[in-house]
Amino acid sequence: MAITTPKIDLNAWFAGVTSQFQGLNPKEPGQWPLAPKLAASLVVMIAVVVAGYVFVLSDVQAGLDASRPAWTRKSPASPSCARTTRPSWPRQSTCRNCASRRARSRNT
Any residues with CB less than 8 A from the CB of 85 and at least 6 apart, and which? Predict the structure, then answer.
């Protein structure tokens, strides 16, 4: 006994979905078919998330970055310094690259 799979006509399905978007009355979205309602709600959700990030969270992130301790930020004097974590030694105030540069500059 062979198992038969149902034949799905994607062209007819896409034609049915696209026909739902034709002739919509923008003043009465409650009377729209399901596909346009879902598409419109998805667009609104994405717009709210993007607007929330741009207007709210970016300011909060900037405040958090400004309040971060100095040892976690890159020094503007040495942009090649890639240290982003706390030093392993309590007395070590710079990363190894910066310390080796200072030692070389003192010796010359």
Answer: 72
The C-alpha atoms of residue 67 and residue 59 are separated, in whole angstroms, by: 12
**pTM exceeds 0.85:** no
Q: How far is CA 101 from the centre of its chain?
A: 37
Residue 20 CA to residue 32 CA, distance in Å, equals: 8
Q: Cα–Cα distance between 106 and 32 in angstroms, integer?
A: 76
Q: On the CB side of 2, how many CA atoms lie within 13 Å of its CA?
A: 3
pLDDT score, position 103: 58
Identify the residue with better confidence: 54 or 95.
54
Other residues' Cβ atoms within 10 Å of the Cβ of residue 36: 15
Quick: pLDDT tens for 9-26: 899 999 999 999 999 999
Distance between CA atoms of 18 and 12, rounded to whole angstroms? 10
